[in-house]
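Tokens for chain A. Residues wanted.
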């Protein structure tokens, strides 16, 4: 049995948490220890609202990465309502097995933060506070990037969690930079005093668009002004494995987080310069197994196929986003029309790298189409 089948075979369906059926808890991974390891750069799959669901996380976990985030979960909603819990977080005991699983929270007060941590702490390895989200509605409520302009509030939340749980709960904060970098340094020092476990710095300001380059000089400056026992992760513009080392060296950090690069290519940290077909079969498998909404699977496949090799023509990619695609069944039909999509359990499942076309016109590259 190949390694991938071996890895999938023990998976239970993704259970909804917190849920009485999930009486078992996760075997914890010590994420902080990973980030503190000076002998290697920690490779981190950062948070994406909508997309970092369990099927995407488990797909990434087949490749070389150390830590994987959930999307930002709004703490206030999560504690308020069963349906919010069902839609916002699902996992199983195997989810991101042997990798660190971090739940990221959108939160503006310590009461909501602690109540959410209490509900989820047995099912993940650490928590993160989102202090980088630039969306106005969240910022108006002092959630996300606005928190970097409310250092007392942010530090107070960290202090409350670390005072209550100490080592039992590892807590990260993901921030953006201020125009005046020394303000970011001050904020990080305050968080360090409050016992934050590590800080992720996205090298853009609150209003910097992602089309602008990440400011690695800022991350380097901030890192250099902070005590070395405070681990710093650099985030921004990491699009392949070479970038990991370049960014780590340039900023003097031990951890690098990639986000848009991972959406396009969940195998990127394994050194793939394009999305291997096996990642596509895996995400289709997990999406069906765990019940991902078809529109999210459609978006994942569009990003991944658009970055695959040999790449489909734009006409074929467009067909994936066509209004005729109304369900997961339609997506599977689409895939079966143009590609040799293997199912879990079928020989050859999740083994191939190049896109296995069955319709030669689906790519501009010359192919030998052998499996028609
Ligand atoms: C689709 C999408 C969703 C995102 N959702 C979150 C989120 O939930 N929490 C967060 O802290 N940042 C979020 N971000 C920002 C990323 O985590 C990251 O900081 C940013 O994309 C820069 O990294 P990159 O250059 O590797 O993409 C999101 C970004 C994208 C593209």
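Reply:
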């Amino acid at each position: 049995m190949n390694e991938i089948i071996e890895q999938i075979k023990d998976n239970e369906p993704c259970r909804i948490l917190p849920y009485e059926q999930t009486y078992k808890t996760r075997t914890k991974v010590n994420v902080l220890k990973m980030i503190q390891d000076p002998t290697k750069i920690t490779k981190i799959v950062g948070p994406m609202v909508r997309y970092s669901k369990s099927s995407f996380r488990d797909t990434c976990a087949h490749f070389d990465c150390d830590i994987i985030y959930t999307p930002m979960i709004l703490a206030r909603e999560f504690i308020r309502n069963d349906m919010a819990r069902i839609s916002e977080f699902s996992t199983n005991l195997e989810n991101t097995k042997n990798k660190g699983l971090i739940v990221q929270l959108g939160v503006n007060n310590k009461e909501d933060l602690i109540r959410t941590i209490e509900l989820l702490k047995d099912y993940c390895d650490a928590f993160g506070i989102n202090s980088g989200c630039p969306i106005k509605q969240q910022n108006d409520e002092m959630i996300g990037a606005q928190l970097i302009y409310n250092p007392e509030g942010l530090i107070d939340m960290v202090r409350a969690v670390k005072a209550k749980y100490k080592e039992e709960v590892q807590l990260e904060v993901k921030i953006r930079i201020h125009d005046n970098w020394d303000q970011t340094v001050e904020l990080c020092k305050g968080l360090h005093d409050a016992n934050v476990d590590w800080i992720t710095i996205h090298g853009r300001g609150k209003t910097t668009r992602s089309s602008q380059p990440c400011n690695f000089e800022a991350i380097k400056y901030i890192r250099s002004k902070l005590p070395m026992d405070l681990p710093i992760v650099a985030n921004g513009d990491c699009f392949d494995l070479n970038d990991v080392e370049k960014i780590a060296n340039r900023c003097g950090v031990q951890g690098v987080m990639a986000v848009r690069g991972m959406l396009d290519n969940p195998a990127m940290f394994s050194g793939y310069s394009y999305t291997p077909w096996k990642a596509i079969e895996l995400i289709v498998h997990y999406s069906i197994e765990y019940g991902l909404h078809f529109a999210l699977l459609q978006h994942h496949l569009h990003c991944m196929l658009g970055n695959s090799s040999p790449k489909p023509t734009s006409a074929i990619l467009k067909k994936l986003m066509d209004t005729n695609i109304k369900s997961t069944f339609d997506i599977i039909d689409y895939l079966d029309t143009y590609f040799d999509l293997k199912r879990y359990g079928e020989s050859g499942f999740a083994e191939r790298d190049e896109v296995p076309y069955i319709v030669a016109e689906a790519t501009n590259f010359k192919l030998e189409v052998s499996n028609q």
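The first strand starts at residue 15 and ends at 16. The radius of gyration is 21 Å.
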